Amino acid sequence: MSLAIGAIIAGFLGLIWSADRFVGGAAAIARSLGMPPIMIGLTIVALGTSAPEMIVSANASLNNATDLAVGNAIGSNLANIGMVLGITAFLVPIPIARKLLNRELPFLLFVTMLGGYCIHDLKLGYPDAFLLLLCLAFVFYRLLYTKSHQAHPEEEVNLEDLPEMLPAKAWLWFFVGLFVLLISAKILVIGAKEIALGFGVSQLVVGLTVVAIGTSLPELAASLASALKGHHDIALGNILGSNMLNILGVMAIPAILSPSELDPQVFHRDYAAMTAITLLLAFILYSQVWFGRRQQPMLGRVAGVVLLLVYASYYYPLFTAGTTS
């Protein structure tokens, strides 16, 4: 058991370290090839914080742990809203930009409903993957079109924390980061499966908790850093974008690599909880804008505590239900 716990810790540390190197190298390569900053921000940087979920999902699918892969996607969305946004809003109240409510949030609500449609029959296969990836392509196109037609689109793209690199160094870090990402994800999945076996809980529960929280650490770091530096749109927009990627991208991976039937609890308990906390966030954001008395609506400390408490309450039925799969 101690080896399994050590593998999970090593996997998490490796994912966090390698994701940062991978994104930095990829962004530097894109710059050297002349890619506009807005494209780098919407693709490489946005995908970077979801890279751990994607790599872990792929490894879990290839190791016949589809429930762990799907649990990782759903659990990461729960952790992103309940834990990441809850902690960030409690420590650094976040101003709410109306453009996020007019653009990214409606997209997220639609994508959440689409994810439910794909798993409501408790099956995840090639048609679902096609639908999810098609919607992912549309979301990227729409966001790119919207931002590129603004007067100053570069103002919304924060690349200041990405290092400047010579091409040779950028390619080195790109491949090193990718290699360590793959190895770390493999180690993490092996450790998670052993933990599930040792504690008598399902792989689904481990994916929803241990793995999901661990792979959400990059989002927590990115959101806190952005909020502390005053990049409030990035702090909130990062979570909305990451949750869309988790449903459309991360959930599509097991549908492609390991089509299979799902545990009934995935839809009736876990997807329902993810939908509920997403709707709660939407209600808080819209109500602050529509009914709030402040000139600048905020996602503040009270909302942060509410999100944390709702997220914590999800764990009770999760662990009281668990049977080993």
CATH homologous superfamily classification? NCX, central ion-binding region
Order of helices and strands: HHHHEHHEHHHHHHEHEH
CATH architecture: Up-down Bundle
Helix percentage: over 70%
Radius of gyration: 19 Å
Query: What is the CATH class name?
Result: Mainly Alpha
What is the total tally of β strands?
Answer: 4
Shape: globular
SS-derived structural category = mainly alpha
Q: Could you give the distance between the termini? A: 18 Å
Ranges where pLDDT stays below 50 over 5 or more residues in a row are none
- Main beta-sheet annotation: 2 strands, antiparallel
Strand arrangement in the largest pleated sheet: 1-4
Overall pLDDT score: 81
